[in-house]
């Protein structure tokens, strides 16, 4: 696992040990960023099920100014912090150990709006449509922002959720990617 492009191109990233997280493969990560970017001109991001932090760190490497990482696994938090330090992104990141629902409520209270939100929950515990609805109802997404979901390829998400709709959907083996933007 490595940073694909940008300031930290080629930098290896540590993975969370054990079977509790499923890191996004380099192939899928590269495809996601080719679709959504490939680079950013500043902005803020949220990596809600951060795992090792690979998606968020890739966004930082490609030009996002600030990124909030959230995961409820203490080992994942430790690995995210190590990966941020290795890439020298500590000053551009906030890392929180929390579950997704509470994290979204906390972010909503801060009235932050994001340019990109990554949702890559454990496949068996996904509540993507509920979380996307919360994001939209609480105005957490910039007008030109996007929500990038990673899910089991067999999962079919609604084309429209609240006021966002599917902009693009791709399948890579057993991994599905669905990107939502405002209609």
UniProtKB/TrEMBL annotation:
Top EC group: transferase
Coiled coil: none
A Pfam entry, by short name: Cons_hypoth95
Keywords in alphabetical order: Methyltransferase, Transferase
Gene3D superfamilies the record matches: Vaccinia Virus protein VP39
InterPro entries: DNA_methylase_N6_adenine_CS, RNA_MeTrfase_RsmD, SAM-dependent_MTases_sf
Example of a GO MF term: nucleic acid binding
EC number of the protein: 2.1.1.171
CDD domains: AdoMet_MTases
The protein, known as: 16S rRNA (Guanine(966)-N(2))-methyltransferase RsmD
Organism of derivation: Anaerobacillus alkaliphilus
Upper classification of the organism: Bacteria, Bacillati, Bacillota, Bacilli, Bacillales
Gene that this sequence comes from: rsmD
């Amino acid at each position: 696992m490595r940073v694909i492009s940008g300031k930290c191109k080629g930098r290896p990233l540590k993975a969370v040990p054990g079977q509790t997280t499923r890191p996004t493969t380099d192939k899928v990560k590269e495809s996601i960023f080719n679709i959504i970017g490939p680079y950013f001109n500043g902005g803020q991001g949220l990596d809600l099920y951060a795992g090792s932090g690979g998606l968020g760190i890739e966004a930082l490497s490609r030009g996002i100014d600030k990124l909030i990482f959230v995961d409820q696994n203490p080992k994942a938090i430790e690995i995210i912090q190590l990966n941020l330090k290795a890439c020298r992104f500590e000053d551009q990141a906030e890392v929180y150990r929390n579950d997704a629902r509470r994290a979204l409520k906390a972010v909503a209270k801060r009235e932050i709006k994001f340019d990109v939100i990554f949702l890559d929950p454990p496949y068996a515990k996904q509540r993507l449509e509920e979380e996307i609805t919360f994001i939209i109802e609480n105005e957490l997404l910039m007008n030109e922002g996007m929500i990038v979901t990673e899910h089991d390829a067999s999962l079919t998400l609604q084309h429209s959720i609240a006021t966002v709709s599917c902009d693009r959907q791709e399948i890579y083996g057993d991994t599905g990617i669905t990107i939502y933007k405002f209609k």
